[in-house]
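Task card 7
Instruction: Convert sequence to structure tokens.
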Amino acid sequence: MEQAQRFGHVVMLGPTNAGKSTLLNRLIGQKVSIVSPKPQTTRNSISGILTEGGAQAVFLDTPGLHRQKRGIAPLLLRSAYAALGQADVVLVLLDGARYARDPEAMRDDLRSIVKAVESSNIPVVVALNKSDAVRDKARMLPVLQALGEALPAAELFPVSALKGQGVDTLLAALFARLPEGPHQYDPDEVSTAPVRFLAGEIVREKLFLALGEELPYSTAVTVDNWDEKSKPGLTKIQATILVGRESHKPMVIGKGGERIKDIGSKARTEIEEMLGAKVFLELWVKVRPNWDLDPALLRELGLGE
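Output:
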């Protein structure tokens, strides 16, 4: 008897820096979401598609839940909660190592998560990430107890998104909870996001990693031109890094233009790997005060309503 196909959306929900983007890239087997040690790196609900056997899941990596109320933070929260409307399964990802050190942080994080999922009948699976980094396993007992009280119907899986430990077991549990139905995408598709968007995200990741703690989160990347036709085998991309203040522009450019060159070089290499083609990447830096208050630009970035 032929196995019934399963298809559905898995919404990844959790606080900032829990490792959602790292887990998504691990599940899909390649990068579809940018990774940074900084919180609030993910701004959109990034999708990754995984097809294995009779199951196909569309994973939505949402912005991290947080309590900030300034800038684009409220938009990020709305984006995360809005994704729940598409969910067939909710995957809650939590930082086990952090909670072992600070149980109160977990209680604060769980309040917003429970509030988001308690009114729905969507199956909830909890992945306790980074728990392999906790040497004294006794410190995990209060964490497990608090999780059981807050989300009693959820099944719990310890994982390491970075090392891949426990990920296969977690994936099997997620697939088993998907509803029966035909697959919606070709088996070789890995994301519903257009490559133009993913290229902009790669530039933004390299920007975050290059700047360290120097620049606030008042940066954005727009892809202004994408040309695959004028020269066969070469994709020409023009992108703009937006900063909120004049003083931020030299931080991005760097002394003698070295920083922007390094950002561009690293981004170009990764975009070439994604496209499987040569890339000419041209980056510009423009000052645009209060860009995060511009409805038209926010819509272009996929953040507006």
